[in-house]
Every structure is written in structure tokens, then in C-alpha cells.
Amino acid sequence: MKYTKAFFIKLAMTLVVLWIVLGLFFGASFGNILLIGTILTIVAFVGDVFILPNVGNFMAAAGDLVLAFFGVWALGTILFGESIAVLSAAFLSALFVAVGELYFHRYYRDHVMGVVDDPKPASYGRNYTASNLQTEFSEDFDEGLDKKSNNDITNSEDEGPVK
Q1: pLDDT, tens digit, 9 for 90 and up, residues 12-37
Q2: What's the gap between Cα 23 and its chain centre?
Q3: Which residues are CB-contacts of 62 (< 8 A; sequence separation ≥ 6)?
């Protein structure tokens, strides 16, 4: 269910961006926008499921930018023909889709993958990082040194407190 909800959020985001760029600025029909948006969303969502956990948010968004550019360019050339400046439409669509993908990937990481930020249970062993290590100090290192005890220091006439 989490994947289905994430897929439809991504589809809605892609369709809104494509409708604004292709529909309002370039006059493309909604049927063509729906076809391009659906194909881009399916391919990009498969990439998000398998690639996003391995490469991170920024690199996945850069991949989505390239995918959206070539997808809109290729499908736009077939569907729109000579009526639209396809290269400009593809560039603007890819740019805005990539910005939307940065936010979608954050949602996807937090709500769908979910296990990224959860700490592992104790059964997996210890997790030693620089933030959870500490130095232990003890008196074991001072054995064998000629050291005056605390009473000797305070009771001596030379080093004692002023009376």
C-alpha cells in the first residue's frame, strides 16, 4: 500500500508539472501529457525503488532529470511533431520534474523505505561510530608512581593551605 500511495503521489506531481509546462506554455493536449507523464512515472518509480536507496537523493534526482529530458524529448517528437519546440519543452519539463523529485525522494525515504533512519536492534551487534565512542579514564595507569596521598599534601607544612 505504501508503494501504491507513493506511485500516485509521483504520478500527480509529474502530471501537474507536465501540464503546467507542456499544456500552458506549449499548448499540448492533456491526452499527450497524460501518456508522457504515465510512462515517465512508471520508469522513474522503478528507478526510485531500486536505485534511490543506493545512490542518494541528489544523484537520483539528477538521473530523473536526464530521464525526464530524454523521455519528454523522444515522446514529444513522436506525439507533437513540428507543432511544439520539443527541445525547449523537454528541458523545462525535466528541470521542474527534477526539482519536484528532490522533495518526492525525501517523502519516499521517510515514509516508504522507513528503515533508513531507524536504529538497528541490539541483536545486530554494536554500532561503533565516532559519535558513540568515549574514552575511559582510570587510576590504573598511575600505579607504581611515587605520589603523595591527598592527606600528605594537605597536612604538610610547606604545601598546605594557609591558616
Answers
A1: 999 999 999 999 999 999 999 999 99
A2: 30
A3: 98
Contacts of 58-67 with CB under 8 Å at 24 or more apart are 58/102, 60/101, 60/105, 61/98, 61/101, 61/102, 61/105, 62/98, 64/97, 64/98, 64/101, 65/94, 65/95, 65/97, 65/98, 65/101, 66/94, 67/40, 67/43
Encode pLDDT of 57-110 as tens digits: 899 999 999 999 999 999 999 998 887 899 999 999 999 999 999 999 999 988
Distance (Å, rounded) from C-alpha 20 to C-alpha 25?
A: 7
> The whole model's pTM is what?
0.67
CA distance linking residue 126 with residue 120, whole number of Å: 9
Q: What is the pLDDT of residue 65?
A: 96
Exposure string for 70-95, b = 16+ CB within 10 A, e = fewer = ebbbebbeebbeeebebeebbbbbbe
Supply angle C-alpha 19, 24, 26, rounded to 5. Answer: 100
Of the candidates 50, 47, 18, the one whose C-alpha atom is nearest the C-alpha of residue 35 is 18
